[in-house]
Amino acid sequence: MRIFxxxxxxxxxxxxxxxxSIVQHSRKLASERRILSGAEWRILDxxxxxxxxxxxxxxxxxxxxxxxNTSPFHRSLAKLEGLGLIVGHEDPKPERHLxxxxxxxxxxxxxxxxxxxxxxxxxxxxxxxxxxxAAVLVPEKEVESWFRWNGSLLEARESLVSSGRVLRxxxxxxxxxxx
Length: 179
Known about the structure:
The chain has two domains: 13-109, Orthogonal Bundle (Arc Repressor Mutant, subunit A); 120-175. Strands 1-3-2 form a three-stranded antiparallel sheet. The protein has a three-stranded antiparallel sheet with strand order 4-6-5. It is of the alpha+beta class. Helices cover 48% and strands 13% of the residues. The longest helix has 16 residues, at 16-31. Strand 5 (166-169) and strand 6 (172-175) form a beta hairpin.
């Protein structure tokens, strides 16, 4: 997924319940037509109808081949992946492309928990705390560039600091417990 700093990130299945609440929030905003473009909707609709699809086959099916469509297509994939709406994995048996991804909807891969999922706000706080724990000591100014959810993320950061789950010292953040 591209949820962390818009770079490819391997996400532990232990974080999936947290991510599920965040992805469901993104899906809700998308369904209200508040965050996605037409191209992004075409990709989501295609994956919903057809299931997992390789990048090259997705481009052909959506008639987005050719150089003029390359950048917009990959920007759309990156945005959907950054919001957690789609997940990609490398094709284990590539035909011609050496690094072809297979894309599918988050809902097609996640094991959604039916038991009280955390609220969006709590999920953001938990994800941020996990990221801070993994980084050990974090320059606070860097946190804003970590995830796409900046407004809510800043609120989550302040909540973590005020609750004592994260310490703020000299421009740095430090998690008080390490998982």
